[in-house]
């Protein structure tokens, strides 16, 4: 019957339109979900190899595991990434990449509140560098309550993890200030506190590239396992290539912070 054929064609056409609308809605939903999550998880750093080094909890120096080369130093950078255009953290990361080495960058949460800061720390992490926690506001923890300290750490952990897709394992307290409350929080969060062996770029006498390079390479504290403190400054960025080359000339390897044992791994190691 003619009317039945027309009815069937119309019903099929409407069904096709409904299916097309459903597909378009699904694509729109997926697109919106991707927009709500601007930073994808960094899968390049999810393959975990056995650690080769650990941080001595007393001296904060780098110690080899098993037969790993002991003649190494660790390069760490605090207060990153300062607001552009004053931030030198991206340049520091590029210098490290050019030299074929990696560093440990301790970020302040207050610098991750704008898009430029988030993009900068994401780019640094994507180069394979490790991002640590340096608190939200760079407050002296000895001036804070235990709950305020918790908030400083949690806020920065959350920001870093949201941006990089990586859990934060290392914490550097501003001014090197530690206390019993911090020790408890580190245990609770499964993080390792880390101060340093030496650093000079915050001292007025060494705030130019030549003086900083000379002092770093001739320091009495430069020895195997040294945990070298640096900051997001112009003179540090300018000095870094010469510092790295000078360390290599003295026979030191730059330890990859990806090879540092994480707190949960330390429990399984016979040290």
UniProtKB/TrEMBL annotation:
<dbReference type="Pfam" id="PF01522">
    <property type="entry name" value="Polysacc_deac_1"/>
</dbReference>
<feature type="signal peptide">
    <location>
        <begin position="1"/>
        <end position="30"/>
    </location>
</feature>
<dbReference type="InterPro" id="IPR002509">
    <property type="entry name" value="NODB_dom"/>
</dbReference>
<dbReference type="GO" id="GO:0005975">
    <property type="term" value="P:carbohydrate metabolic process"/>
</dbReference>
<keyword id="KW-0732">Signal</keyword>
<protein>
    <submittedName>
        <fullName>Polysaccharide deacetylase family protein</fullName>
    </submittedName>
</protein>
<dbReference type="GO" id="GO:0016810">
    <property type="term" value="F:hydrolase activity, acting on carbon-nitrogen (but not peptide) bonds"/>
</dbReference>
<dbReference type="InterPro" id="IPR050248">
    <property type="entry name" value="Polysacc_deacetylase_ArnD"/>
</dbReference>
<feature type="region of interest" description="Disordered">
    <location>
        <begin position="34"/>
        <end position="53"/>
    </location>
</feature>
<dbReference type="InterPro" id="IPR011330">
    <property type="entry name" value="Glyco_hydro/deAcase_b/a-brl"/>
</dbReference>
<feature type="domain" description="NodB homology">
    <location>
        <begin position="71"/>
        <end position="255"/>
    </location>
</feature>
